[in-house]
């Protein structure tokens, strides 16, 4: 039985207000606290964008310096996290590993035991900065461990983006490549009521704690219909191999009714506002690496898919190959998304808490009509 009022997947349903970001599919625009994301990607550090999402305004030089100081002071891996990582099979998916470690971080936080400590807004802001500072070290350590390598300590003389790449690879790529990484973090930071952010808000709405909300959000992000698409895109490229195989590969994929990852969006129907900026950033890496084969493949799949389906690429389409060219394993792409989106998630947790109503929708029952066990069935 289906009820005509049911909006499967909450499609088109407005469930609350938010002052954090505005997605406008008509104008193909995305604003963080009123600023077009393209302008932020062109001019701001990721630290400044994190500040903007949490506080509603871009930081003054003093405020930015204070955030950078706090972030740099918390960059190092806790020895208990290093010990936990050693207990997790190296074959586990990095999303599962990062989810587990973020859960562990919640157990280190003694302020949770204070009266009202779970949902104290000032403490939640500190926790947001802690997660922001810790995730690069966690993701870098997970990437290195997959290659049989020890974690690399952070460097205080580097900004967030350069330090992230340093901790992962032990060397720095060109300034242009560091900038591509920064741009990807800015573009991934926030996107209104997407599935993982909504998950975080549902958890926050029960007056649970911020770590629990982020752990739940990571679980939602893992799915290929959401953040897992950036990993899945790269698997497509590997499967296809070369640009001249795109046509036959798509024929087979359509015949098997497969979804092609990195295309389509619930909100944008005429193209994802973030794609042109990320595509330009990817082109920098494609030029720098001389990977004309990959450039041809990325173009060929995009053109063929848009021509045949009229569905456009989303942010995961250009970011997947960009992370590949930066040197990350494919399974690390979605954990990079976590490191960026934790800024948006934590801003939303605090916004939810500030004017909370328990999120508890209704369902239309579709099971069997009322019935009774009866004495015989109870074996009495
Ligand atoms: N490949 C093939 N067909 C598609 C695709 C795709 N990527 N996207 C949409 N369609 C078709 C779909 O099969 C359906 O066709 P029909 O009406 O004939 O059954 C129609 O378009 C509508 O699709 P839908 O899945 O009902 O629409 P939705 O609004 O629920 O889907 C989506 C949004 C993102 C789940 C979907 O486009 C999709 O599965 N894309 C691939 C996964 C992906 O790239 N996800 C990342 C999303 S954006 C960034 C992020 O969150 O990470």
Automatic annotation (TrEMBL):
Coiled coil: none annotated. The keyword Transport does not apply. Keywords: Acyltransferase, Transferase, Tricarboxylic acid cycle. It catalyses: oxaloacetate + acetyl-CoA + H2O = citrate + CoA + H(+). Pfam families: Citrate_synt. PROSITE patterns: CITRATE_SYNTHASE. GO terms for molecular function: 2-methylcitrate synthase activity; citrate synthase activity. This is Citrate synthase.
């Amino acid at each position: 039985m289906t009820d005509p009022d049911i909006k499967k997947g909450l499609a088109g349903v407005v469930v609350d207000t938010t002052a954090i970001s505005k997605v406008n599919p008509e104008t193909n625009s995305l604003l963080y606290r009123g600023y077009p994301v393209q302008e932020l990607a062109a001019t701001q550090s990721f630290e400044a964008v994190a500040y903007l999402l949490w506080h509603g305004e871009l930081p003054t030089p003093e405020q930015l310096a204070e955030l950078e100081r706090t972030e740099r002071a918390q960059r190092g891996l806790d020895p208990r996290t290093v010990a936990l990582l050693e207990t997790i099979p190296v074959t586990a998916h990095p999303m599962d590993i990062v989810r587990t470690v973020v859960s562990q971080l919640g157990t280190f936080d003694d302020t949770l035991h204070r009266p009202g400590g779970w949902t104290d807004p000032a403490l939640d802001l500190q926790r947001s900065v802690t997660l922001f500072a810790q995730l690069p070290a966690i993701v870098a350590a997970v990437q290195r461990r997959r290659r049989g390598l020890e974690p690399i300590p952070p460097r205080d003389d580097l900004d967030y983006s350069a330090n992230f790449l340093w901790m992962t690879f032990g060397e720095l790529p060109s300034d242009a490549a560091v900038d591509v990484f920064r741009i990807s973090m800015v573009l991934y930071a926030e996107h209104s009521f997407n599935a993982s952010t909504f998950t975080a808000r549902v958890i926050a709405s029960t007056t649970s704690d911020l770590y629990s909300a982020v752990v739940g959000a990571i679980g939602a992000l893992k799915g290929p219909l959401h953040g897992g698409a950036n990993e899945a895109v790269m698997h497509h490229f590997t499967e296809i191999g070369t640009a001249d195989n795109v046509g036959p590969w798509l024929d087979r994929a359509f015949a098997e009714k497969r979804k092609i990852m990195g295309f389509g969006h619930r909100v944008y129907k005429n193209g994802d506002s973030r794609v042109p900026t990320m595509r330009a950033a990817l082109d920098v890496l494609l030029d720098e690496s001389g990977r004309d084969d990959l450039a041809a493949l990325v173009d060929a799949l995009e053109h063929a898919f848009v021509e045949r389906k009229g569905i456009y690429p989303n942010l995961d389409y250009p970011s997947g190959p960009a992370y590949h060219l930066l040197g990350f394993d494919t399974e690390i792409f979605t954990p990079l998304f976590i490191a960026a989106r934790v800024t948006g998630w934590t801003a939303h947790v605090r916004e939810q808490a500030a004017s909370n109503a328990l999120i508890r929708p209704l369902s239309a029952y579709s099971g069997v009509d009322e019935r009774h066990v009866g004495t015989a069935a109870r074996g009495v």
